[in-house]
Amino acid sequence: MTGRQAAVELLATALERLGIIDAERFRPTVDLAWPRIVTGFAIMSKQTADLAMVGIAVGIAGTAGLAYALAFWEIVTMLGLGLAGGTVSLVSQNYGGEETERASLVVKQSILLVVVLAVPVVAVFLCFADSLIGLLGAEDASLEHGATYLTFVAPAVLFEMLNLIASRTYTGVGDTFTEMIARAGGAALNIVLSGLLIFGLEMGVAGAAIGTTVSTGFVTVVLAWGMIGRSYGALGMEPSPVPVTASGSWLEPSLMRQVIEISAPEIGRRLAQGIVVFPLLWIAATFGPVVVTALEVGRRVRGLINSINWGLSLASSSLVGQHLGSNDEAEAGAYGAAIIRLSIVLYAGLAVVVVVFAEPIASLFVTGPEEAAQAATFVAVGAISSISYGIDGAAAGALLGAGDTRLPFVASLVGRYGFALPAAALGLVTPLGIGALYLALLLETTVPAGVNYWLFRRGRWKAVSRRYRPSSEAS
User: Fold this and answer.
1) pTM score, whole prediction
2) Where are the alpha helices (DSSP H) in 326-420?
């Protein structure tokens, strides 16, 4: 037994004794989750590292401009994640039901949808960068930096959305190692390139964007190699067992309808999560670029914490979906509940650590003591709100594995637009001021988490899943 295996066994035993998750369920969960956590950290660290380097090289105007531009990039990510949510749901259920050809067709149709969605977004970023950043109330210097980033990062839109489809396909078949290696390599390349372009060639925000575009394209090439069934040799990475091939059908109307039916509410849920940042940034802009930067630093640190969800949420989707695909509803429910408990423990522990070290973390992004103090408060609030992110991600992941995406979409809308946004707006008309933004960060995760946990406990998702299982085709 290797050191890693011994550590996993020891941790599995401890968690089982604490009643968090059975050891027999912890092992497949961690096997799926840990590479995805590394993957999520790699993805989220790219923009976070760019923000820190731009802060050092350019200053507050650069970080504020980057904050505005990254809000639009987040829309791209959320759009891709929503579509990929339908992919992982159908791939995992069909793969679990031993319908590999049908799972491969799901991937093909998801790729077609990505192209249809991504190309117009690329065009909009290239043609209207100034106007888009200007909508958020950016000052002239910040507007210029934000528009520059958005223009140079535009080609990466298609790359990133294709990467998300490939990543979710690998997750759906139980392989999270291959995408981890690809994503980690891309993150390392991004830091090296961005650092060289920002500091070595003094390209500032443009250097950060070019580094992101090149590194994202690199990941696309690496993942595409395995997605078409090609071997990676001795790298330890595996070709996809549901490969995309030029031969055979690329379109089956009934299956396309299922992809759209599951993905559309998930896209809505993800977009609701991403779009809310625009009015939040607009409100923050009324307090000046320092608050805009502080808010973005808090959100980026929270995003790094939320790397855990990249693993546990997707493990929940995959394991719940595979057991539903084999018609084992009881085990699917047991996995979902256990992963939710595990998520709460991990997020709470990490949030405590981040709150304790909030000031040193904030000082990595801003230099002045006043700016660092403001950013540290947002870092601490973001860390606390991340605990609800953990509950939301694990519960929504289980629902997604069943194909139940409509009510989680409603939960996201209610939490972010019925609670968080009105709370933030109070800062404009009451003495709460910046404190209203703290309240908004807490509400935007807490409300959806409570709703999605209730939906999971209710159990309706099991009935929903029966419409999408391979066995339903034969009935």
Assistant:
1) 0.78
2) 329-356, 358-362, 369-401, 406-413
